[in-house]
Amino acid sequence: MAKFRRMKDSRHGLIMEAALKVFAEQGLVGAGIADIARTANISTGTFYLYFQNKEDLVIQLLDESVRVLRRTQAKAIESEGPPLLRFEHAGRAFFREFCGDRREMLILFLRDSVGVSHLVEEKRKAVFQLMIDDITGAIIRITGGKGRVARRKAQVMAVSIFGMMERVAYHYYIWQMGSKDLRKVEDEALVFIRDGLGSVMPKGGRRAPA
């Protein structure tokens, strides 16, 4: 379960933790505010002191999810080591820390928030674009590429990387929950990422240890 330690109000974070748990168990559509309030051990009236409605709660949860994901990725990409190694560490962090340790966030991020409302869908689009922009920027910084063509190539690579990671996560961490082959899946997915990045990255990357 994700912990919202950085929230200014501990009750605000408690409600968000409870909501993730309830959404993961009941689905976002089926879960009601009363269910969330009961799990958080608060009244429904208290819920409305922090959130306008369930849609507002979902949007704030998506904001928190992307904050956690960006922090995880940035830490790996900006670490020491050859370029390919750093990106491979970022991929492992995505699968192990976000998909594994924070699975409730993953479910909301990739499954339950889809098609909820126009505002939530706009937030999802913004979240995905932000992640693609982060990866694009990291590729450009590490490769030293300049100009429109370099940026286009970096962006295509970023879209491909994030799209593949998203689909792998959905298939193996949500559809096939409890698969015993997650580490093998992770390794095989990272091979594709490494080989793709190898075509645009400086030489010298090596595989990260499992």
Largest sheet: none
Strand content: under 5%
Calculate the terminal CA-CA distance, rounded to whole Å.
Answer: 24 Å
Q: Can you identify the CATH superfamily of the largest domain?
A: Tetracycline Repressor, domain 2
By DSSP (H or I, 4+ residues per run), the number of helices equals: 9
Give an overview of the whole structure:
- The chain is an all-alpha fold and about 210 residues long.
- The chain folds into two domains: about 1-50, Orthogonal Bundle (Arc Repressor Mutant, subunit A), CATH 1.10.10.60; about 55-200, Tetracycline Repressor, domain 2, CATH 1.10.357.
- The protein has helices spanning about 10-25, 35-40, 45-50, 55-75, 85-100, 105-110, 120-145, 145-175, 180-200.
- It is elongated.
- Mean pLDDT is about 85; it is low at about 1-10 and about 205-210.
What descriptive keywords fit this protein?
Tetracycline Repressor, domain 2; 74% helix; mainly alpha; single chain; Arc Repressor Mutant, subunit A; 210 residues; 2 domains
Brief synopsis:
The protein has 210 residues and is an all-alpha fold. The chain has 9 helices and no strands.
SSE order and pairing:
Layout: H1 10-26, H2 33-40, H3 44-50, H4 54-77, H5 83-100, H6 103-112, H7 118-143, H8 147-175, H9 182-198
Helix pairs in contact: 1-2, 1-6, 4-5, 4-6, 4-7, 5-9, 6-8, 7-8, 8-9
